[in-house]
Amino acid sequence: MNTKYIIISAIALFASTTTAFAQPDSIPAKRLKKYWNSLLYGNVDKTFEKHMDISFVVAPCYTKEGSFGIGGAATALYRSDRTDSIMQPSDISLSGSATINGFYGITVKGNNHFKGNKARLSYRLQFQHKTLDFWGITYDACSVNPISEYTKQLVNWESDYVYKLTKNIHAGAVLNIKYTDLTQIANPAYLEEQKKSYFFIGIGASIQYDTRDFILNPKRGIYFMAKETVYPSFLSSYNKTLFCTTMIFDAYSRMWKGSVLAFDLYGQFNNRHTPWPLREELGSDDSRMRGYYGGRYIDCSQVATQLELRQHIYSRIGCVAWLGCGTVFPSLNKLKMEHILPNYGLGLRVEFKHNVNIRIDYGFGKDTAGFLFQFAEAF
Predict the structure, then answer these.
(1) How many CB atoms neighbour CB 308 within 10 A?
(2) What string of DSSP letters covers 288-338?
(3) DSSP annotation of 3
(4) Which of 370, 338, 375, 368 is CA-nearest to residue 353?
(5) Dmax over Cα atoms in the chain, in whole Å?
(6) Could you tell me where the beta strands, DSSP code E, fall in 100-118?
(7) For 314-345, what is each residue's pLDDT tens digit?
(8) What's 307's domain CATH number?
(9) How many structural domains comprise the chain?
(10) What is the gyration radius of the CA atoms in the chain, in angstroms?
(11) What is the domain range of residue 143?
C-alpha cells in the first residue's frame, strides 16, 4: 500500500483518542482506548501470552496508480509452540485499499513456522482490480511507446513449503496459481498478439541456506535461495510448458551501535516466449526498485541489486538509506548495460509490532520518484 498521507492517520488516531478520554465510561471509548494502547505498546512481545498478537491501522491514502482512497493494514505475530523461546514467531499480515478511480485490492501474506521448528510455509494471496498506465511488454517497447492504459484483474497465490535438512539448509516445494484478465485495454497492439487473459499453475522446488535471526527484520545472517518453477502446458491456458528460475542472495551485518548493513541480489529468469502475466515488472513487488511505477518497464526476466543502511534512532524510530540498480530483459544474451536503471532513496521506520517495522520509503529512479508504505523490511 503506497501513500503520501501517513500523517493523516496519526491525526485521525489522535482525534479518536481525545474522544475516548472525554467519555471514559462509554463502551466505544473503552474500545478506542484499547485500540490506542495496542498502537502505543504494540512493539512489546506478547506472543508468549496471546494465541495471536494483532495490531491494525486504517487511514486515507494516495497512490500513484490509484489516486485518493482509503487503506488499511493489520499484522499479527503468533507461535505454534509458546513453550519454545528459541524459535522465531510466525507472522501474518493483511493489507487492502480502495480508491476513487476504481482501484481495489487485498493482500494476505505470512510465514508460518511449524511446531518443532523443522518446517516453514511462506505464502502470499492477492486479489486486485486496477486501472494502470501501460507502455508495453518488453523493455524496448516500454522505452519508446506512448503511454496507454489497461484495467487488470488478478488472483494470485504463491507458496513455498520448506523442510530443514540441517540447521541452516532447507529444501522446499513450490505451488503458484495465477489468473490474470485485462477487462479493458486502450491499445491491444501493445500486447504483441498475446491473449488478454491467462491462467497458470506452477509447481517447483527450492533449496535455501538461511541463517537470518528474524525473517521480517534481519539484523544478521545470510540467506540464499535457488528456486525452479515449471508451468506445465496441461495445467495452464498457454500452449507451451514454461520454466522460471529465481535466485536471491541477501546478507546482513551489524556495523556500529544500532545499525545494520543489508545487501540484496535478485534474479528471475523466464523463457523468452513467456506471456505477459508471468513477465517481470520493475518496481511492482514493493521490495526492489522502490519508487518506480510498477509496470513502467516489463520484460521476461529481471536482475536487481541494492545496498541498504538501516539505523535505529530512538525508541521505536529508525531510518534507512539505500542505493541500487536493476533492469528487465528478454534473455541473458540480450541484457544490455545501457538498460540498467538507477534506484536510491530514504526511508522512515516505526516499530509497529515486536521487531516488525512499518516502512515509509521515498524512492528515486530514472525520471521517477514515489512513496511506499508497507509492513516489514524490503528484504
Answers:
(1) 21
(2) SSTTSPTTSSEESEEEEEEEEEEEEEETTEEEEEEEEEEEEESSGGG--GG
(3) -
(4) 375
(5) 70
(6) 104-113
(7) 999 999 999 999 999 999 999 999 999 999 99
(8) 2.40.160.50
(9) 1
(10) 21
(11) 6-375
